[in-house]
Design brief:
The protein is an alpha/beta fold and 242 residues long. The protein has one domain: Rossmann fold (3-Layer(aba) Sandwich). Helix content is 31%, strand content 26%. The protein has 9 helices and 9 strands. Strands 5-6-7-3-8-9 form a 6-stranded mixed β-sheet, with helices on both faces. Helix 6 links the parallel strand 6 and strand 7. Helix 5 packs parallel to helix 6. It is globular and about 50 Å long.
């Protein structure tokens, strides 16, 4: 079954083209990397899937239905650079936000909700930081907090924008071990990724883009082809918002 189906997707910011005519299927149960040079449209692709940006044309479906009908099945982890880390909030409260779809914004969390949040923190090795302010943590710890928040949603599809960017090796190992565990549970994980050297260690499949879809294949086939060279040699533009 398809987790994500994208057909004829084109996205532009003002008059600047970011993605052109993308046709792509991402199937359930895989850990898939979205890879490409800076400005290739990787983050924009995630934003289009989540309806954060409106495409000029194209159609996107989630689990062969609309995004609206599947919101409760999706968890999103944004780039750390897009988060205001100075906002005064404790680690536990950040993670508990992952339960708000279940409990509602104006209701108090139950003991079950709090237990789920604590267990998610524990799974990410952060239980001793439960009462810390989020801005007191390291980069890798902050990333694990946001992944713990996503875990609280018990989502079928996890969409993450550079979850390993700027994290230490210890955090990277914890994050990817958890992703492998979720995959064994039948979950689907899609990540924007920047380190080509770790593709074969962490990902089953690679979506390679540079404004258009260069290739989508198993990680082994991508690494043994000339697609990476083709994608990274065709940079020739600067779209920092992508």
């Amino acid at each position: 079954m398809r987790a994500i189906h994208i057909e004829d997707l084109t996205v532009a910011y003002e008059e600047n083209p970011v993605l052109w005519d993308i046709d792509l299927d991402i199937y359930k149960g895989n850990i898939t990397a979205i890879v490409g040079p800076n400005g290739a449209g990787k983050s924009t692709l995630l934003k289009a899937i989540l309806d954060f940006v409106k495409p000029l044309s194209g159609r996107i479906s989630i689990f062969d239905s609309s995004l609206k009908k599947n919101l409760d099945k999706i968890a999103y982890v944004p780039q750390r650079s897009n988060v205001n880390w100075d906002f005064p909030i404790k680690v536990f409260d950040v993670v508990l936000m992952g339960r708000y779809k279940e409990i509602g914004w104006f209701k108090k969390p139950s003991k079950i909700d709090k237990d789920i949040a604590f267990n998610a923190l524990k799974e990410m090795g952060l239980e001793k930081y439960i009462d810390r302010q989020i801005n007191e943590l390291s980069g890798g710890q902050k990333q694990r907090v946001f992944i713990a928040r996503a875990l609280c949603q018990n989502a079928e599809l996890l969409i993450m924008d550079e979850p390993l960017a700027g994290v230490d090796q210890y955090s990277e190992k914890i994050i990817m071990n958890k992703m492998k565990e979720l995959q064994k549970q039948g979950k689907t994980i899609v990540c924007v990724h920047h380190d080509l050297n770790t593709l074969k260690d962490y990902f089953d499949r690679v979506v390679l883009i540079n404004r258009y879809l260069v290739a989508h294949d198993t990680t082994e086939n991508i690494l043994n082809s000339n697609h990476l060279t083709k994608a990274y040699q065709e940079v020739g533009f600067d779209e920092t918002a992508a």
